[in-house]
Structures are given as C-alpha cells and as structure tokens.
Design a protein that fits this description.
With 633 residues, this protein is of the alpha+beta class. The protein contains 24 helices and 15 strands. The longest helix is centred in the N-terminal third of the chain and has 26 residues.
Amino acid sequence: MERGESVGDTPRPWQSYHTVYTNAKAGMDGVDKEKVQRIVYEMSKGSKYFENEERKEAFIGQKIENIRAQCEKLSEIDKSHFQRVADKRIIELEATRDLSRIWLHVDMDAFYAAVETLDSPSLRGKPMAVGSMSMISTANYEARRFGVRAAMPGFIARKLCPELIFIPTDFKKYTYYSGLTRKVFQKYDPNFVACSLDEAYLDITDACKERGISSGEIAEELRTSIYEETGLTCSAGIAPNRLLAKVCSDINKPNGQFVLPNDRMAVMTFISSLPIRKIGGIGKVTEHILRDCLGIYTCEHMLQKSALLCALFSRSSADFFLCVGLGIGKTDTPEAKLRKSISNERTFSATSDEGFLYQKLDMLSTDMQNECLRGRTLTLKLKTASFEVRTRAVTLQNYIFSREDILKHASKLLKAELPISLRLIGLRVSHFNEDKMGSPFDAKQKTLAEFINESGKHVVDSSSFGLSSICDDHFKIGTATGLPIDNHETQSHDSREPSNCNQLSDCNQSEKFGGNSLDTVNKRANSMDDETASSSNLKEESLWVDEYKCSLCGIELPPSFVDERQEHFDFHLAERLQKEESGSEPRIVPKPRSVHNDRTGNRNKQKKHKPSPEDIKHLPIDVFFVKRNHQNL
C-alpha cells in the first residue's frame, strides 16, 4: 500500500508517518505493523517529537525529489556510459573477494533485559523493558511481540503493552557480564573486535584449523561456554566476512546460529533475496531513498540498478552498494586504534530549570573525570525540547581532566545558551594528551617526516597524491559530528570503531580533488596580474574528458547535469583562488636562504624608523587581492 493511501472513506495518515517504527528487530516479525504505527501516530501527534519527525520527513522528501530529478536528466547515452563504469567497478570489486577467512558474529539476546531477568527471576516470561517512561534501552522478547522495542518512548510502549514492566538501567551490572563474555571470546580469538557491550566479531579461521572442527561446532561450543559462564544466551552468525556474519547472527535469534558456507555461489544465493534493511549501514532513511527513487528492495537489485547507483551517488557510496549486492565485506582484522574521544550524555524530561541543568552537568563532569583522560577540546551537546540538536565546543590551551575544570568550562558553554528548555545534555572530551598519559603508540599514525617524504615520492603522480588520499590515509583523527544519540543513559563511548553511519551521505566534491593536478594549474599561472587569464587557464584545464570525466579530479558527471557541472567548476575555481590569495602556492621562485636572512635583518634594522606621511604609499584595496604576492610592503 502506498504511503498516505486510504481504504474506502477511512483516511490512514499514520501510513505516511513511517519514520517512527520499524520491525527490523529480532522477535518482531509477527507484529501488526499498521496497528503499532497507528498507536505511535496518535500518541505522538501534536508533540515536539512529532513536529521534529515531520521536519525530517520533509527533508527526506526533498532529497528524494532531487534524486528523481537527476534520474530524469540521464539520457540513454549517459546510462550506457555509467553501465560500463559500473560493470568495470563490479569486476574490480569481485577481484577483492576473500573466501579464505571464517568470521563469527556473536550477539547477546536482549542483553540488558536478560541480565535483569537473571538478577530477578520473577521477571521471566513477563513483558519487560529496560529504561523509563521517557525512553527504552531494550525490551525482552515477550514485550517485542506487542511492538515494543529499543529507542521507543516509554509512554508509547505502555500504550502498546499495558502490562509492561519498567526496570531502570544499571550499566555497572551490564559491564560486569560483558566482561565475562569477553573472557570467553578471548579463548577463540585473542584479537576479537568488540562492537558494544553485547556483540563482537571473532576470526575463528585459525581455531577451526588447529582443532580440526567445523565453524558450526566452534559456534555451538562458544555459545555453550557463554551460557555456562554467565547464564545468558546468545546468537551467532558464521560467514566469509563481517558484513554477512552480522546478518547471519540475526536469522535464528534468540539462542540460535546460522552458518553461511565459504562459497561464492552460496553467498550470491543468500544475498539475492535479502532485504536491504538487513544490511548494517542501511538505515530507514537510506532504505526509503533507495526504495522510492530506484526501486531497490533487495540486495540483488543493487547490481541490477548499478548504473544508476554510479551515476547518482559518490564513489564511496556506490562502492558500498555494489559490495552489498556482491556480498563482499571486510575480512581483515581491524588494527587497534587509539581512543580519540570519550563522551557521556543524559536524557530527561524537557525542562528549563537552570539548577537542574547545572546539576546534570555536574554529574556528567564527575563521570568524565573517572575516565582519567586529559583532553584539550570540550564539546557540549544539547537537545532542545523541540528535538533540535546543538553542539558547542571550546579548545583550551591546557589539558584538563578534573571535575572542577570540566564543569567550569562546560558551565560557560551552557550559560551562553540560557534560557533554554532541554531534554538532553552531553559532554565529549577529545584532543587527548596521549603521550603524557602513557597511551600506546599507534603504528598506523605517520610522523610528519614520513608524511613529507611520502608526499615527495608521489609528487609526480596526481592520482596518488590527491586530496582524497590525504584525507583517507594521513588524517584519520576520528572526528565526530556529534555525541551518540541512540544510548540515552549515562555511559562512555569510544570512537575507535568507525560507526556505520548513513552510507548515503555523499562525499563533498573536495574529497576527490586532485591536489597535484591543481598544482600543475597553479604553476602555469606565473602571476596574478591578469585575473581573467587565470580564470581562462583554469577553465581550459577543467574541460571534461570524454564528456564525463573532470580532468582535475576525475569525478564523472553526465553532460545533462548542467547545474552540477557549473557548481563543480566553481568549486575548483574558488579552491584555486583561495590558495593563491593565501599564498600557500607561491608562484615566485624562492630566493636563497642567505638572501632571506638578509631581508629579515633589514626589516629588523628598520623597525625603529618611522616613515613620514610623504613616504607612505596609498594603494587601492584591489591591489592586495590581485598582486599581493608581488608586493614587498
């Protein structure tokens, strides 16, 4: 049924309110989705949350219309071109397929709820949720049958299930049981990857070879060990890569497992009918756009629509979608990364009570101090009563870690926003003093000397020294756009593992900007005397190769994308003019160091000389923008 469609004379507006509910969680397959949507719609209508959802819905709708408009611009020639591009890329990705490793994904069953049930056996068999009337962290399988799930407001969950029992969160308890499970993981893979308190990836290739047993037997043994150690059940998925292993662990939940053989035909058969929403990294927004714009419902459709994916999305997004269609994922063990930031947040009922807000800030500051990490950058996250998210940050001269220092600077950031009605406050500390705190050295982090030497080696090859390679390989600093918003209770977050954010977020054109190609253009401009000549030189260099490919950065845009091409050209022009204005790319041959020292000495000698008004030359302001690098003022 289409969104917003009505049956007979009865309107069903909740059908267009699709962003509030999903039954993708295990244990919710038999839930009456329309009934749940109706109740959520009726309980939310008129609230600030409802208004915020409508704003997000309007934004998604506009994005869908833009993509549809781009689809209509594509000619048959364009589609043929991008089909060739997609076919070539599929062959390249297929060559990277690795079927030599065996990955196991372990996911604890309703972990928080299971721990609480273990602690209070009287809760067994009753619908129960961990959280409060404001927000739910998780729900047991009895509650999920009613449509109750994590990240749902408690008052809506109570409407869906009047018998629902609420248990407050206790993260010390959950952390303890998580530690017990990790001791079991350690026996099978010392380098296991923990994604959260209740799930982890294990490379069991060596364990299978050494013990001469199958992956299914390893999974069964591991699950039994976890139950004996903790009294908790878990589900497991075994596959050739981590992407598929996570999907497999959800198939036979709870307390089950699924094995996908290390065979290409088995993988392609498995992935062909798999709904795209089952893939980690494809959320409700991406699903909505792919489904409504391109008619992509299953992973197999990714390959069938490969030409459109390559034409409409960035290289990284298109590659991700194609890998999904091929069932290709990561097989190498991720290297340990240093913690880049730590964050903490609290959710509460909307209030403008300044005393209460400062009290929450004090509690967060105390929690951050307990982590014993010194940082220079402090970020304050605020979510208003209307669900608007704001972040305010300050970078200090000295490293801080004490509650008093964190509270002092966080209070200043909060004070600048008052008066305000808030429903969430969060703090993040980053820019750590790792060396002084004795943190381990990150082998992947390049020194400045290594970076300069490596840059010099590849200065001739523009493809190997583009801006994208610098961003990807040299400047991985773990920058975050905001604090986690899914976990609504006090806890610490580690940004070492990159989150699978919405893969649809297209990279800015600057990510593919060939730095060395621009250097070539800059060197051809010996001066800034003739701005028109400079622009014409850039225009000549940015001609589209084969009518599709930009000669400067390699990005491909169809000829019919006139506005997009003009914007792309304007970007290159602005980038070049900015470099010329900042003097970062000087076009005058530098003088020997001795001459430079003489000039420096002359300037020092002339410091005491005060020129008379007659000696001062008044230059028009445009000279500073056009000929600045040629004036010795």
